[in-house]
């Protein structure tokens, strides 16, 4: 569960990115975050995995008060969240398998559990057969699937995605969206910032629209609502 | 909950990973690592030369200082009792190390010996020895010599005394200067090496920026991220120290050898023996190398951990 109470974010240059956000996202929900560029979507997403700290207000996420935690506890919060980006953020010198295993190694998982678990999630994103390839040998959609596998490998309760289909063609985007849907149906909360109108309007979910740093709209099974 | 044993096993395994990653970093950025080890080698070599120089200057200064003594000449016809009284009161001064009595006859003998083959010119002086009785006074700290000399001068039965007034003060000033300049140089060079290592590690960190970003995002702790760089810095610092240690040890060995094989040189230069000097310098360079390596790595990583 994610909750925000009167969250404000002012950047050092004086920009008011968020102005009093109140939100509650239940466990297992699938939420699109939409809105014009520069309206505060990215800030909203970054506050959840504590890349940014709110200027004012409280954020609760999976039992942590993210707005109040100590620096030392940030890793613990991050372990309960999987993050997926528009640019995949894969390590180019590591194979598909190693990229996914990396996320387990750096949180000091038991090495005996790493291989079976990595092969498990690679099976989920249907890339088992490309485990030994380098990211450069894969298509964009396949790379995003590796990134998704990496986000999932530590079994987080929440997946946060920042424009995951932004760099992909429509057909590949749908493949990725089906995977998100599948993951969500297994009980993982999904919060996705997106500009993809077709997807939002077709795969109907809760839509939170952020405009000028405030929540302009919050509808179950909403539509995208903007002309591109 | 994890068992106690589980945690210990994990830590040893993790340590292995950090060392592997640290070594991998060194290889991955081979030329950069080479450049920075070379920089450390160069700096520590110069530092080592200065260290050896400073230690020898210190040694020389100490031995010169040790030779500083006060020669006190007593008034003629001073009674034995007064001589004893004088010796006792000088011996009782807290800054005085030793007092040695040299009688008139002894003084003449020493004087003749110092004249070498011209000693015959003074034959016969034994009858009416013109030399006074004298004392040689040494202080515990050479720097106290002028003060002690002044005190003795006021005492009864003293005719005159000599401790190289003026020269001694200049010598002390000179050895102090050499010592201070050496220390200043060593500190300056040490800092230069530190910044070089810090800079190299910063470059390797920039090369691994994405990796660190991902590590942070999936919840690696700061120390987990820091360790490989710590190992990398330590290895660079220690490797950088090993080469100058070997060069300096071999070089100093040959220097001593060359000096001892020439009579004039061995009279002129009284250098510290190879051991324990080499151990001391090696230890100092290793410690400084390790310290600047670790310091450099931690300073560089700190900036990048604020994701």
Automatic annotation (TrEMBL), chain A:
Listed name of the protein: Cell division ATP-binding protein FtsE
Spell out the SUPFAM superfamilies in the cross-references.
Answer: P-loop containing nucleoside triphosphate hydrolases (SSF52540)
Mention one GO biological process in which this protein takes part, according to its record: cell division
The upper taxonomy is:
Bacteria, Bacillati, Bacillota, Bacilli, Bacillales
What GO CC annotations are associated with the protein?
plasma membrane
Question: How does this chain assemble?
Answer: Homodimer. Forms a membrane-associated complex with FtsX.
Q: Which InterPro entries match?
A: AAA+_ATPase (IPR003593), ABC_transporter-like_ATP-bd (IPR003439), ABC_transporter-like_CS (IPR017871), ABC_transpr_LolD-like (IPR015854), Cell_div_FtsE (IPR005286), P-loop_NTPase (IPR027417)
Does the entry feature the keyword Membrane, yes or no?
Answer: yes
What GO molecular functions are on record for this protein?
ATP binding; ATP hydrolysis activity; transmembrane transporter activity
Its encoding gene is what? ftsE
